[in-house]
Write a structure and sequence with these properties.
heterodimer; A: about 220 residues; mainly alpha; Four Helix Bundle (Hemerythrin (Met), subunit A); 6 helices; elongated; B: about 100 residues; 2 domains; 3 helices
């Protein structure tokens, strides 16, 4: 059995590296479950109000740009792929590939956030931001229309905030990878950093159809 | 350690499937399926979620304890959605005296 002196990464409360990795993974998943509950409340609020004001929510939803939304979804999926490849690179001990895939993940995350910023800016120009200057053409119900965009900004905003945190995590992992900290014997931080990144991807996988697609057929 | 290292081919296949499903959900959304537009959109989203969770997040090869924790989380999310929506969606079914 591997001793603690041979493996500096092995903390003293754990018997084996396997046990340590299992506990780290479980800890990350436990955190992600609290995140599921947190976003779950927002998804529930959205579902209830969409049911209540179906017509206005459909009209408001169709104001969003479906092409930009779909492209950004693809960008995020690409970043999930580069992330899983980074974990794979760490597993097989290729430091160079790990660094390249982490950089790609950071860049793709940056592209996603950049596109999101462009979209939000468009909403300001079109007066689709809830507030005194809000106006959605084609409906008398300006209140429920503002409610849609409030939920849109809250959900995409919180998602983007998670992306920013993810970018920070990736930079931290990149720093560790450059320092040569990770290899086949120890890559737990890359692994659980990946769990977080993929989770944020899953949130967007649900936000995209719910916010962008749900009323497209009524066009 | 039960580290069944997944092959790059598997990751690439999952990646391509996710892109295809994204294109599919965007295109199907423009076709009028009546109430089934929502059903199809959510079904595709759930399939994508499963692909990411099982393969990219390695849930497939995780310990039973981890799977139970994730399953427990999904169960509670289900309770939140089911109980709340079964209230809201059925309010108009029966007339309430005095309302």
């Amino acid at each position: 059995m591997a001793s603690h002196t041979e493996l500096p990464e092995l903390r003293e409360q754990f018997e084996t590296p396997e046990q340590q990795k299992e506990i780290s993974t479980l800890g990350m998943w436990t955190f992600l479950v609290t995140e599921i509950m947190f976003f779950g409340g927002l998804f529930l609020a959205y579902s209830i109000y969409r049911h209540e004001f179906a017509a206005v929510f459909g009209l408001a939803s169709n104001q969003l740009n479906i092409v930009i939304g779909a492209v950004n979804t693809a960008v995020l999926i690409c970043s999930s792929f580069t992330m899983v490849m980074a974990v794979h690179a760490a597993q097989i001990g290729s430091r160079k590939a790990l660094i390249i895939f982490l950089i790609l993940t950071i860049l793709l995350g940056g592209v996603f956030l950049g596109v999101k910023a462009y979209e939000w800016n468009e909403k300001f120009e079109q007066h689709h931001v809830p507030g005194p200057s809000f106006h959605l053409a084609g409906t008398q119900q300006q209140g429920p229309a503002q409610l849609f965009f409030s939920l849109y900004f809250t959900m995409t905003g919180l998602h983007a905030l998670h992306m920013v945190v993810g970018e920070g995590l990736m930079l931290f992992l990149l720093w560790g990878a450059i320092a040569g900290k990770y290899g086949p014997h120890y890559y737990t931080p890359v692994d659980i950093g990946g769990l977080y990144w993929h989770f944020v991807d899953i949130i967007w996988i649900f936000l995209f159809p719910l916010l962008y697609l749900i009323a497209r057929h009524q066009h | 350690m039960q580290e069944h290292s997944t092959s790059v081919t598997t990751y690439a296949a999952v990646f391509i499937s996710l892109l295809v499903l994204t294109a599919a959900t965007s295109l199907v959304a423009t076709v009028d399926l009546g109430p089934f537009n929502v059903v199809v959109a959510l079904f595709i989203a759930v399939v994508k979620m499963m692909l990411v969770a099982l393969f990219f997040m390695h849930l497939r090869n995780s310990t039973i304890l981890t799977k139970v924790v994730v399953g427990g989380g999904m169960l509670w999310l289900g309770i939140l959605l089911l109980f709340s929506l079964s209230d809201v969606l059925t309010r108009g079914w029966l007339p309430v005296p005095g309302k």
